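Comment thread on ticket #2218

A.B. wrote:
> Attaching the input chain for the structure job we discussed in standup.
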Amino acid sequence: MMISEHKGHRERLRAKVLLGACCEHEYLEMFLCYAIPRKNTNDMAHRLLSAFGCLPKVLSAPTEELQRVAGVGKSAAALLKCMGKFCEDYSNLIQGSNALPENCDRDKLLAFINRTYADLDGEVLDVYLADAAGKIFRRERFSSQRKDTVWVDTEAFSSLLIGTRPSGVVLVHNHPSGEPEPSVQDDETTRKCEEICRFQNVVLCNHFIYARRGIYDYYGGGKLMKGYGEKNK
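C.D. wrote:
> Ran it. Output below, let me know if you need it in another format.
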C-alpha cells in the first residue's frame, strides 16, 4: 500500500514537470527519484536547497560537498553532477555559434553562417529544416573523413525529409580553404537535392556556400529558381 501511494506521488510529480509547473525543490526531487528509486526524496531535496541556497548551486556543487548532505550517496551526487554538467554544456550550446538560426530570414542566416562556419576545419554540408512559418526546427549534418570534400547520401536526404516533413530546406556548405564559388560537384549536389525536395513537395529555399572570402548564394546567383516562400510546382 505504501509503495502504491509513493508511486502515485511520483506520477503526479512527473505530470507537474511536464507542465513546467514545479518549484525548485520539486525539480530536484524528480532528479533524485532516478538515483534513489525506492525512497521519498522530498526531504533530501529540501536539505540540499537549504545547504546550497538554490538549484543552480546544487547542480554545480562538487560531489564531495553534495555527499555531506544527509542521505546523499555516491549515486545521487553523481546524477546531480551530471545534470549540472549537462545544463552548463547545453547553455553554452544554445548561446554559442552552434545554436540553430531562428528562421529563414536571409540577412539573419548570413550573419549566422559567418558566425558559425568561420572556424570549421573540415568541409560539411548542413541541412536546415523549416516549418510552414519559416521557423528552423532541426539541423542535419553531412560530412566525410576528408577535409576537402563531403558526400551527401541522396537516400539519407530523402529519408530525412520523409521523417521530419519540413515545409522548407536551407542547405549550408563550406569551403574551408578557397573561394565561395560553387564547384561542378556542388552544382550537381544542389540539383539532386532540389529534385528530391520537389518530389517531397518541400521548398529548397536556398543553398549558401561559406568561404573566408565571402558567401555564395545560389538563389541570389540565379542557380535556384525557387526561393523563400515559393512552393514547388
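A.B. wrote:
> Thanks. Noting for the ticket: Residues 1-5, 228-233 have pLDDT under 50 and may be disordered.
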